[in-house]
Amino acid sequence: MTPVVSLATLWFVLIAVLWTGYFFLEGFDFGVGILTPFLARDDLDRRMCINTIGPTWDANEVWLLVAGGATFAAFPVWYATMFSGFYLALFLLLFGLIIRGVSLEYRGKEHAAAWRAWWDRALFVGSLIPALLWGVAFTDLVHGLQIGSGFHYTGGFFGLLQPVALVGGVAGLALFSLHGAVFLSLKTSGELAGRARAAARLLVVPTAVLVTALVLWAGLDGRGGPVPHRIPATIPWTLGAVAVVAVGVGGIGLWRERDGWTFAATGSAIVALTAAAFTSLFPRVMVSTATGRSLTVWNASSAHETLLVMSVVAAIFTPLVLAYQAWSYWVFRGRITRPPVPDLHS
User: Fold this and answer.
1) What is the reported pTM?
2) Residue 290 has pLDDT above 80, yes or no
């Protein structure tokens, strides 16, 4: 096989698909968690917001677990380099994901207002942190980091906080929040759906501006020097443009109150932006600011035999997982309505 047509390339594509699915599905979960304190007027509204993601949020996180596990098994050098430099950032990310999951499970264990208020705050923080940090991390991967000899990251924690990466973090936060607002308008009814739609209308223009800024800045300031077998720059540029246009189409759908159309548009923006990042990377998995030190799908991958066994296992179990998740979304496809409040004076 040629270097491009190889199992290492196949697993790069599969990992890209896993991250894309994760951001599409967990994106609206993060958005719901971030927006709930601002859209809910009482405990019943907060319960409705949480119920929109309650049956599926943990299944959505499976995409992250599989993406992380696949990276560890298929590209151990990539995994090791990320953890050598992203350790504190990944710890903060893990902290956010943990308190978010615990808040969703423990909020309903007590009826006391103070108990629920604390877990509502945990849900907000645990949704905000990952939504921000994922954008920072992936922008860093594409833009370039200080990778020294032996593929060790040498830039320190503050080396991750490049201006373009911060723009990427805020853009990701805005896009996930918009996606979550649209999901709430799609999955709820009545006044809560109206408030979610109004929030999405407020978010759509800033999101379009931030995504445009990210695409232009990251695309024009790429690093790492010439790399053989790179995908033509027109492809990630086109995908970035598709992401911007999709946010604009979502804005049109919001004004026409076409919730399904709008959700498809914001989801397409996330898919296109993630695909732009991975096509911009290939064949690299981490870009180095020093020429010749970037990690690629070939110098960071496992042995051919390992990738072959992984491919067989993935071919067997992936369709089963996808079928189960599709079935779960079909079962919980309906809108959530606010139950009527009994009239105590009748």
Assistant:
1) 0.91
2) no
